[in-house]
């Protein structure tokens, strides 16, 4: 191998290591954010001041969760979290329901104008 090929291989390896480290850091940050959100479930908010997760009131929940039975939690966009969470906590993408908007397409506008003009 030439000296240039060796340098290129070393640079690729360094880039792969940096990418791997960044990915690991990102996963850890995501897990921390999700864990904080889940820990705040069932706690009260003081909407007159600040309702960010770090300002949740109290240490205990206002609702009762089954803390004895745990399972890994799948969060869309983040994957399955290793920490076991209560079986009462579920996370999904939600309903994919699209509600009809009040915006009319061109042909409906023409029909509306035609109808109104005869009144």
Automatic annotation (TrEMBL):
InterPro entries: CAD1/NSL1-like
GO cellular component term of the entry, any: plasma membrane
Sequence segments annotated as region (Disordered): 1-23
Protein name: Uncharacterized protein
Species for this entry: Opuntia streptacantha (Prickly pear cactus)
Highest taxon, organism lineage: Eukaryota
Biological processes annotated in GO: plant-type hypersensitive response; regulation of salicylic acid mediated signaling pathway
Biased composition (Low complexity): 13-23
